[in-house]
Amino acid sequence: MAKKEICTDKALLDFAMPADYDTVSQFLDIFSNRYDFISIQSIGETILGRRIQMVTLGDEAAPKSVMYVGTHHGMEWITTLFLLRFINEYCEYYKSGKQAFGINLGTLFATRCIRVIPMLNVDGAELQIHGVDEKNPLRERLERMSGGDFSKWQANARGVDLNHNYNAGFAEYKKLEAEGNIFAGPTRFSGENPESEPETGALCNYIRFNGDLRMILTLHTQGEEIYYTSGGYAPPGAKQIAAQLGRLSGYTISEPEGLASYGGLTDWFIKEFDRPSFTIECGKGENPLPESRYFNIYAGLREMLFCAPLLI
Ligand SMILES: [Zn+2]
Question: Residue 262: helix, strand or coil by DSSP?
Answer without folding.
Answer: coil
